[in-house]
Amino acid sequence: MLYDTRSAPNPRRVRMYLAEKGLSVPTTQVDLGKMQHKSDDFRALNPVSQTPVLVLDDGFALSETIAICRYFEELHPDPPLFGVGPRGKAVVEMWQRRAEFGLMISVQAVFRHSHPAMTQLENPQVKEIADNHRPRVVAWLEMLDKELAGRAFLAGDAFSVADITAFVSVEFMRPARLAIPEGLANVARWRGEVAARPSAAA
Q1: What pTM, to 2 d.p., does this model score?
Q2: Can you give the residue ranges of every domain in the chain?
Q3: Are residues 68 and 133 in contact, defined by beta-carbon separation less than 8 angstroms?
Q4: What is the rounded CA–CA span in Å between residue 187 and residue 136?
Q5: Does domain 2-75 have CATH number 3.40.30.10?
Q6: Pairing of strands 2-4, 27-29
Q7: Going residue by residue through the chain (202 aa), what tens digit of pLDDT does each one get?
Q8: Cα–Cα distances in Å, from 80 out to 7, 56, 129?
Q9: CATH number, span 85-201
């Protein structure tokens, strides 16, 4: 059972990953707006009160987005989404971490500290945190545009979990009220190609 939240970016990463693998997992929705993630029952599954959470057949609860994806990667290695070979796997890991800790965290910080819907979940909201992260989002996208000039995807010619993280981050810019800077043709090309993949609808 996958505890999912349709509106949140991290669970979407897992859904995209599963779609790329052609896997179907039963889900239960957790409504963050209703604070369901703060319930005693959910805390028993994940003490940090975050989705997604994957409950295995033996009742073990596995949380953290990439940990869940790696679990399925071990069970279903094809198509490989964490790279192939020592160098390939390392390069995917490098770009996955860059996308997560560079782009995604900054987009989320802007959303959490500026969007009116987050006043209950992010208390207190600190305007300066959102303001500090906006230029970081732009700088990351400008760097990515230069990198994508020479290859199809973040980690090379093959689609990977790093592209999922970066794509979900870019898509989450809309609710964060962030705009992609004009003139980033390579980012626009990459985004369009990822958006056209069936998994983007997950």
Answers
A1: 0.96
A2: 2-75, 85-201
A3: no
A4: 16
A5: yes
A6: parallel
A7: 999 999 999 999 999 999 999 999 999 999 998 999 999 999 999 999 999 999 999 999 999 999 999 999 999 999 999 999 999 999 999 999 999 999 999 999 999 999 998 888 888 989 999 999 999 999 999 999 999 999 999 999 999 999 999 999 999 999 999 999 999 999 999 999 999 999 999 9
A8: 27, 22, 37
A9: 1.20.1050.10
